[in-house]
Specification:
Elements lengths: L7 E4 L2 E6 L2 E2 L2 H35 L8 E8 L5 E5 L11 H13 L6 E6 L8 E2 L3 E4 L25 H12 L4 E2 L3 E4 L34 E7 L9 E5 L6 E9 L6 E5 L6 E9 L5 E6 L3 H15 L3 E2 L3 E4 L11 E7 L3 H11 L2 H13 L7 H15 L6 E2 L11 E2 L1 H12 L4 H6 L23 E8 L2 E9 L5 E9 L5 H18 L5 H8 L3
Parallel strand pairs: 7-9, 8-10, 9-17, 10-18, 13-15
Antiparallel strand pairs: 1-2, 2-3, 4-5, 4-24, 6-8, 6-19, 11-12, 11-16, 14-15, 20-21, 22-23, 23-24
Length: 534
């Protein structure tokens, strides 16, 4: 005998619960619960966006921030869901945020283990007596770190030895081969890139300082020399001026004097484009710390040739020839140069970390050009721009969303949209080189150009982003890890800002805090997925 539980009846061979005369389908009930759950999640997401928008209005609604133009875009890094947007299709001068495009391109095209090779070559033969009768050629192939930097970069930039250390090591290698005398010239060859030292959009003032050093396939000590001014012990004493490494690229007219201890330092430096004379005027307080002015070298290859000759002579090599630069490749019929010494660089992954952490302009320009040069010779920056545009198309960036005139962002003619920036960053997450790319980003309150920002806040150690700054421009783009485990990808840009630098920086810091605090919750769907057994 079949016993039917109370409240049940059989219909079409199935047991169905009857309650108050209504048929209830358990599967339909579950779907409704899911729908309600998703609706609740959407409501929470909308509320978070509303709270963030309110904080944006407060941060950007008052002067001086309100005078500038702002582009803001925040998305969930995993799903790509847009959490907040403002003017995401508008153009902004990105400043050093352009380095994100260039370093991503270099990593994608060259790989993290790519290494640069710098060689000393000659078509001559070293005699048993140690004489080389032909030219000695220093061939540069874009290594940005022919210097005394220590690697890997760890929290801060460190140095070891003289700035020309790498050239000195090459000179040591020559001496070890028994070379004692040279009758040919010392030639520095930077023909690996076309001679185009200054990109379109760089300004005259840029050419004086280290951040605007001339672009070359030979980069010795960042193509800079440091002028150190040391005041005397008593007001009226002469101020000592020393240039290192030694260079004939410029001569210094030192008109700086020592002032009383209570007088604030006051220095001005003047150098006309293409001129050799550098004039420094002003005062430095007595017994104060030396002041270092890092100046750009305008003729990097010739500077490198002179340095190499001096280093060889210091090691006892007699050099009767002169020094010169070679900017165009020369191929001697039937003659293959012999490599007498070689310097192999650190891996590109380590080099990129330095670039983005300290925002090194020249290194970024070199990486962009090297990536194209590895695919063959090229003639002008138009070739470079097309090469980059093809990469951005592959990434999924609309052609009109990036206008690029240099690799570093020093050009005031670069323009990008926040939309393009997020497309790039989300693409980077999918690539095998992302770990190196992510590690290259400054960390809020920890290192690089974000070391002093957002300290002792919930954003410290959680915002990994590239800064950007030229006159009237500020930008910050990268990733943020909220306390709840959610990763955000974002781009904040402002142009035509005015006022004191810290005011715009404070506004961007406020945006970072608001982003982390309001978009902390992981979406419900992702939370359930993460709880599933592996």
């Amino acid at each position: 005998m079949n016993i039917r539980p109370a409240g049940f009846k059989c219909a079409a061979g199935m047991w169905v619960l009857v309650f108050c005369g209504l048929f209830l389908n358990p599967s339909a009930s579950l779907a409704q619960k899911k729908k309600n759950h998703h609706a609740g999640g959407a409501t929470k997401a909308a509320a978070a966006t509303a709270r963030f928008a309110k904080r944006v209005d407060t941060l950007l609604g008052a002067e001086p921030a309100s005078k500038g133009e702002w582009g803001l875009l925040i998305a969930d890094a995993e799903t790509g869901e847009t959490l907040y947007e403002q003017n995401i299709a508008d153009y902004f001068v990105p400043a050093s945020n352009m380095k994100l495009f260039t370093t991503a391109l270099a990593l994608d095209k060259l790989g993290t283990e790519f290494r640069f090779h710098t060689t000393l070559e000659s078509t001559g033969v070293v005699t048993p007596e140690g004489e080389l009768s032909a030219d000695l050629v220093l061939v540069g192939r874009g290594d940005p770190n022919l210097s005394n930097r220590k690697f890997p970069f760890n929290l801060k930039e460190e140095f070891d030895g003289p700035p020309e250390r790498t050239l000195a090591e090459l000179a040591d290698a020559l001496v070890a081969k028994g070379i004692k005398k040279m009758s040919g010239d010392v030639v520095a060859d930077d023909s690996y890139f076309p001679r185009e030292r200054y990109p379109n959009g760089w300004e005259i003032d840029d050419m004086v300082w280290e951040y605007g050093a001339a672009i070359s396939a030979l980069v010795v000590n960042d193509n800079t020399a440091t002028l150190t001014l040391t005041p005397g012990h008593t007001a009226g004493d002469a101020v000592q001026a020393v240039v290192a490494p030694r260079t004939q690229d410029f001569i210094v007219d030192n008109e700086v004097t020592t002032s009383a201890a209570n007088v604030k330092a006051d220095l001005t430096l003047t150098r006309e484009p293409g001129a050799h004379l550098v004039v420094v005027r002003g005062t430095l307080p007595e017994k104060s710390a030396p002041r270092k002015l890092v100046l750009a070298i305008e003729e990097p290859a010739l500077h490198a040739a002179r340095l190499l000759k001096a280093l060889m002579e210091q090691r006892g090599v007699e050099v009767s020839g002169g020094v010169r630069a070679r900017h165009e490749a020369i191929t001697a019929e039937g003659i293959t140069p012999t490599v007498l010494a070689e310097h192999v660089s650190i891996p590109l992954g380590d080099s990129v970390k330095l670039v983005n952490k300290i925002s090194q302009n020249l290194h970024t320009e070199v990486l962009l050009r090297t990536a194209l040069r590895q695919q063959g010779t090229w003639n002008s920056f138009e070739d470079v721009a097309k090469f980059a545009a093809d990469f951005y198309a592959k990434v999924g960036i609309a052609a009109q969303d990036v206008i690029q005139t240099d690799g570093s962002g020093l050009s005031r003619h670069d323009m990008v949209t926040p939309r393009a920036m997020l497309t790039l960053l989300r693409y980077a997450q999918t690539r095998p080189w992302f770990e190196n790319f992510f590690a290259s980003l400054p960390v809020a309150g920890v290192d690089g150009t974000l070391e002093e920002r957002l300290k002792n806040t919930p954003a410290a150690g959680r915002v990994h982003a590239k800064t950007g700054s030229v006159e009237h421009v500020r930008a910050l783009s990268g990733f943020a890890d909220a306390a709840g485990g959610r990763r955000l990808v974002f781009s904040f840009m402002t142009n035509n800002e005015y006022g004191k630098n810290h005011e715009t920086t404070d506004a961007m810091n406020g945006l970072c805090l608001a982003m982390i605090e309001e978009f902390n919750a992981v979406p419900a769907k992702r939370s359930r997925e993460h709880k599933q057994p592996q």
